[in-house]
Amino acid sequence: MIAVGQSFMNAIRETSPSSIEATLRDWLPWMIVASVPGVFNLAVAVRELEERCKFLPFFEPYKNPGVWLWAIVQFTFPAAVFWLTVFLPERPPITLKLVSWAIAFGLTFVTLLNARTEIGSRTYHFKSLYAYFIGIAYEIIADSQTRRAAAFWTDVEDALSASPDLNEGLDYLENYFASDISLTVQEADSYRDRLAQARTKTSKDEQAKATKTLIKEVRRQDLSYVLLRFEGIESLVDKYFSSPMHRKRS
């Protein structure tokens, strides 16, 4: 692996500081091609990150160092593996076939990790190393979010149990999900069924728990507005959402 990239590193080392910029400019087309898999893999992986973190009400991705580490890994791993696999340091002709391969490599990178990667005469397994760094990223995210998220959802369930009437909030949730054009027909039907089940719960605690699971599906930026639709939840919103904008029932 080291030998494959040696020509590029030697080109950098052997040039004077004044010509480094020119050298990088010469390599720029191949560096751009190498970045293509990283960009496409990152775009695909964002969906997984959003899904895994959807229940974290105070998650701010751009302020979390774990997310930045996660993004670096998602970008650099496919870019580096593609660079070495295709022998880009040898500057192959940049053709439509090469660019298409780079795009496909990025879109299917996670699947390709399950296979062995051959570089020259050697075979490498990158999956464990990739998973290790991704695991560290998620650990950093969890360290900053888990305790507060658990406290919040516990307080939400307690507040819903103490609410005299959940019907107004459930009516709003029904309209909320019905208005979400991103949902498939199956997803919309599922929410409708879950709302109907929540309404028929005879136990107050069970109804609160079922309602909480539905509220967890609300977009993070809409969470405080949805909570305010439930009677008796104002103090909880004041506790966790200090901005005056969160008090608007709109």
Mean pLDDT: 84
Morphology: elongated
Radius of gyration: 25 Å
Task: Detail the poorly predicted runs.
Answer: 244-250
What summary fits the major beta sheet? 2 strands, antiparallel
End-to-end C-alpha gap: 57 Å
Q: What's the β-strand tally?
A: 2
User: Structural class given helices, strands, pairing?
Assistant: mainly alpha
Describe this structure in words.
The chain is mainly alpha-helical and 250 residues long. The protein has eleven helices and two strands. It has helices at residues 2-13, 20-52, 65-85, 96-107, 109-113, 127-162, 167-178, 185-200, 204-215, 223-227, 234-240, and strands at 117-119, 122-124. Strands 1-2 form a two-stranded antiparallel ribbon. Helix 2 (20-52) runs parallel beside helix 4, helix 3 (65-85) runs antiparallel to helix 6 (127-162) and helix 7 packs antiparallel against helix 8. Mean pLDDT is 84; it is low at 244-250.
Short descriptors:
single chain; 250 residues; mainly alpha; 11 helices; 68% helix; disordered C terminus
Question: Would you summarize the structure shown here?
Answer:
It contains eleven helices and two strands, in the order H-H-H-H-H-E-E-H-H-H-H-H-H. It has about 250 residues and is an all-alpha fold. The chain has a two-stranded antiparallel ribbon.
